[in-house]
Amino acid sequence: MAINKLTITLFLLISLAVFHCLAFRVEVQEFEPPQQEGQEGPGGGGSGEGWDEETTKNPYHFGQWSFKNFFQSKDGFVKMLPKFTKRSSTLFRGIENYRFLTQEMEPNTFLVPHHLDADYVFVVLQGKGVIGFVTDKANDSFQITKGDVVKVPSSVTHFYANTNDTVPLRLAKIAVPSNIPGHFQVFFPARSQFHQSYFTAFSKDVLTASFNIPEELLGRLIGPQQQMGQGIIRRISPDQIKELTEHATSSSNKHKDKKDKHKDKGSSTFGSPFNLLAQDAIYSNDFGRYREANPKRFSQLRDLGIAVGWVNMTQGSLFLPQYNSETTFVTFVENGCARYEMASPYTFQGDQQQPWFGPGQEEEVEEEMSGQVHKIVTRVCKGEVFILPAGHPFAVLSQDKNYVAVGFGIHASNNTRTFLAGQDNMLSNLDTVATRLSFGVGGKMAEKLFTSQNYSHFAPTTPSHQFPEKPKPSFQSIFNLAGF
Amino acid sequence: MAINKLTITLFLLISLAVFHCLAFRVEVQEFEPPQQEGQEGPGGGGSGEGWDEETTKNPYHFGQWSFKNFFQSKDGFVKMLPKFTKRSSTLFRGIENYRFLTQEMEPNTFLVPHHLDADYVFVVLQGKGVIGFVTDKANDSFQITKGDVVKVPSSVTHFYANTNDTVPLRLAKIAVPSNIPGHFQVFFPARSQFHQSYFTAFSKDVLTASFNIPEELLGRLIGPQQQMGQGIIRRISPDQIKELTEHATSSSNKHKDKKDKHKDKGSSTFGSPFNLLAQDAIYSNDFGRYREANPKRFSQLRDLGIAVGWVNMTQGSLFLPQYNSETTFVTFVENGCARYEMASPYTFQGDQQQPWFGPGQEEEVEEEMSGQVHKIVTRVCKGEVFILPAGHPFAVLSQDKNYVAVGFGIHASNNTRTFLAGQDNMLSNLDTVATRLSFGVGGKMAEKLFTSQNYSHFAPTTPSHQFPEKPKPSFQSIFNLAGF
Amino acid sequence: MAINKLTITLFLLISLAVFHCLAFRVEVQEFEPPQQEGQEGPGGGGSGEGWDEETTKNPYHFGQWSFKNFFQSKDGFVKMLPKFTKRSSTLFRGIENYRFLTQEMEPNTFLVPHHLDADYVFVVLQGKGVIGFVTDKANDSFQITKGDVVKVPSSVTHFYANTNDTVPLRLAKIAVPSNIPGHFQVFFPARSQFHQSYFTAFSKDVLTASFNIPEELLGRLIGPQQQMGQGIIRRISPDQIKELTEHATSSSNKHKDKKDKHKDKGSSTFGSPFNLLAQDAIYSNDFGRYREANPKRFSQLRDLGIAVGWVNMTQGSLFLPQYNSETTFVTFVENGCARYEMASPYTFQGDQQQPWFGPGQEEEVEEEMSGQVHKIVTRVCKGEVFILPAGHPFAVLSQDKNYVAVGFGIHASNNTRTFLAGQDNMLSNLDTVATRLSFGVGGKMAEKLFTSQNYSHFAPTTPSHQFPEKPKPSFQSIFNLAGF
């Protein structure tokens, strides 16, 4: 038996070792590998341009193939990323309770009423529509349009309509489950093709007594024949759209009927949408614009501590090297492609190959300060997701015209953003003596290094940035207009 | 060795699969199974009436046999449910740090001073007594009676007395551990039959120096012979009861000596009890009453985010289908039996059969939205517990006269309750067009379905509800008095 | 296959059992073992005096050998304790996200600018120096000296200098990671001998565009030759010290240039240091002094809920038996040795022998109230750490002159301290009747037991306390000056 024990121990250790070997390898390299710089991989799913995928395999990048269908029909879909801790149970433990989703509804469709056991925040990426909230006290509908940010509180029943004739209604969402960290479900009062009504769970006598209706009518409640063939997203007529739209509060008068909210609804009352694109940009110049709705400025986002960012960049622009102090951003590319470059001192050992350890199992984290910086370089394209953890320096280099991305910031209540280059960069504020001690350069060289960039936040780069061997003209210095 | 690795992998996977097969099966069924509706099982422990237990095996129900004795003697007991995550490490991860207890003391008994490394809230189910708090600054005793709710802060030394001659003093408690999530222990300054004094841990020289007493007296402090035979709950004399009662603040003058609290005790000062039954009911009519103390209205409950509910229902009444937005209620039946019906989209795979995975191990959660609703039907009787997770629609059907239950609400700071039937039901607030789109019924039929029930919150049902084959007279419609 | 399954199950169970047997054994003993009382072990690392180490093996004590080097050179070091949950995944789950570190810098040295993905609080144990904070908005340097407490917010770039000619600058720190519970890393803008610059992660084209500098200058930024040989702690000249010191705000005028903080830095702005030793002591008499900075009194400590305590005791003094209500203290001995005695009802089963279960795996906790009190007796010396969990009664007996220790309190927002002996002891406030019922002694004896000690908080003991067989003269009673 002693031998058996030894054997099994050995087996377990060997299995572990083997699986560690199979785990993802993050690209770790010393500086000066110019010949590899162009090797960003495609975002996968055919969105890239055929570069070698292997080198960009990293835990922070989720291609389109990572999404799982939550629901899909010809009229639209809801897709969700797996729990982040399925990718790395250690690296993403701090954001374990957050789930990222996208939703798309074809023109003239309706998503039936439902509630989740999760709070969520969404931003409208494209299109126009209506969201309707229904409670036992009231019924509030709001018109929503591109850039609108809405918080949907946990367990509030709500429905959506795409009220536009031609354009899909597309949303990005971040959900914060209420019952089970990282997991939530959807509850439907009415039956549809693939989804049961939650009234199904009640017995006939409870239902007849509850609704005070004869038994014959129960079928109308929980399983009417005529709805059987329809999915949760379904076509609606122009008249129905007109009626739904008329009832909805538009952005211009959105604060009207707030008064008939009953007092005991208290602070969980849902607020009206606010439009992120109507806000002043936090950073803006000819090369890019960044807008953000954060908990400090929008009380709706306060209890969840969520921020929503929206960045626009022109082709070949650079969102200058920076890091967030406390917030991890889940960024979703809405248009174009960008190269994300990020520094991480963490070593990643994926545990997807260790199915029986499950997501609750923490892989070992390298305890020593190795001193090495892992270079995370990824091309991220429309429909893909990139995670920017707190404290990690990163830069974004847009590679197509009109690069657009949204980001959901987690733990965003007290975040600050520190730029490492550009007119407002942190290093230019370092004492002369500290600069010399740290970088080994005197005041003159330090000035050259840290104050040559006159742009703030966004800066131009050469179109040939993918071939850095080619010498770049320093034409930027002739511009002297910082766009802050 | 490659073969060995393969083999071991295979073995692990097979073991996993087998144990998944052994796991609990929740009753999942399509609607229209009237012949099965009567199959609620007994609450176990002999409290039921002999129905088939198997069909109600579900993770949300804890029979009396689930409780473990924390302490038991002829003079009383303290019992505790296992950590909820022992039943399901996934379903109950959100309430992992909460423990449910009951305590019973015979007439004329005393529970010796002790403290826990946990905050807790209790409600008096029955009887009259005294709770005494002792700190290094002061000494506050309060008379407690049925319906009183008290918060006992972590590590405050306190004792109980049942001051009544005939009636047991019975409490239900929810504890929130301070040191180890989901675990706490009890600390006693004085020794009793089965419990050591914590002074036992100090060496003789520390004790003599601390108390400045000769060594001979140490025995009186930590192990006096005359106390050896007594448990932590022990008989007391009428004189002792009189003295304890006289020192205690009664409800009528409970705010008196609050002024001699020293200022540096700050916000952790324990408050006086408040009586839940003396509050106005939130919902009340001829068929039932629901009272609730929640964090919004009672500042004592604020830091723990705990609510306490108390429901009374007449025989054959129905607490109408509803759900809580953010709060999970741990309900404890104080009198009678009720049938709980609940809708859950979650699949449950119990891990009690997987002892080596332990409570820290998360079982896999079904990621896809299956669209299926699991029907949880359980008969819950006196002394049993049922968990009502946030967002899950449920109804309660009382089956005995004077059904009484208390509930501890977890994450209760911003909860709202949504009724799905009755005069205030959420569905009656749905737009006409949304109703048609969702339920496939027009305005007239919708009105019939959603507004026929004139009662709110509680409604009558027929006495024959357990035999739903028998046609039920719709006599309810002749009543027109909503009891809100 | 059935046999295989059985076999593997058996193997797993056996392995588990064996490893449980290998696990740490905590000393559990009934009272009255005077011959063992002197057996406290050395703190390890040669700091003790040769007592038997085995009996003090307990999870709460971390010797010097427990620290891992985060960085070390001839000019200083940063050392860190492993995650507490590596010692016991159950006992320390509540403090899993906290890490303890010490830092030492030789005279006239500089620790290069860096940031962590963690908030931290430090206290200066010895020496004088400067801490400089650099953001993209400003640059604030503060002079620090023994007793200063400083909060460094997550991701703020900062540097240190030891500005003294002769005395090392020594700090104790507690860190609260932002990204991964219990783990953090360090990020350096500039390269040093063993540590890469985070700019290393950016490609050449991004760097040249970001800084708007020619490629030739990049080397100066991320890897200048002249810095290669230097560690992160490096020698600096008197002139450099003078310059750094001049820029730094000293304690006397530390609130000056606070006004040029930009408004959008908001509440995460770092505050100035405050000196703990300049505060009035909370407890003080001839035998000891205890000072504490807690979240209630220092707003900087509020968001982390951290308290910092500092105790001084004369040789042979006793910090009287007491417990904290909600706070777990991580204490670090700065000078001398003390015997810690602590009562714990918890059983400890170390899981260091179970490497593949990892720190995420919870060992089983004994669920029943065993009634036993585990006696934790440990000699803790300079450079060692002892954990005092919430609710656990403990006493500290100084064994060398000038015993000094600091403590970081976790979950300290609402803590109260309850003394079990001394003039303010909790037991002396117990009702006469409750005292008789609990301790079986009448009023006269209770008075003798609980009010003979006229000192509060700190009391003298005999020099022979290590040999408790020798009768101790009760000379304390002749003093009548309580030092409160």
UniProtKB/TrEMBL annotation, chains A, B, C:
Gene3D superfamilies in alphabetical order: Jelly Rolls
Q: What is the recorded name of this protein?
A: LOW QUALITY PROTEIN: vicilin-like seed storage protein At3g22640
Q: Where is this region: Disordered?
A: 32-53, 245-271
Enumerate the InterPro entries for this protein. Cupin_1, RmlC-like_jellyroll, RmlC_Cupin_sf, Seed_Storage-Functional
Q: State the CDD domains in the record.
A: cupin_7S_vicilin-like_C (cd02245), cupin_7S_vicilin-like_N (cd02244)
Q: Which family does it belong to?
A: Belongs to the 7S seed storage protein family.
* Entry superkingdom: Eukaryota
What species is given as this protein's source? Raphanus sativus (Radish)
- Please report the stretch or stretches of sequence annotated as the Cupin type-1 domain: 89-219, 274-447
Point out the signal peptide segment.
Answer: 1-23
User: Is Signal tagged as a keyword?
Assistant: yes
Mention any Pfam family matching this sequence: Cupin_1
Regions of biased composition (Basic residues) lie at 253-264
Q: Which UniProt keywords apply?
A: Signal
Locate the compositionally biased regions of type Gly residues. 40-49
Q: Which SUPFAM superfamilies match?
A: RmlC-like cupins
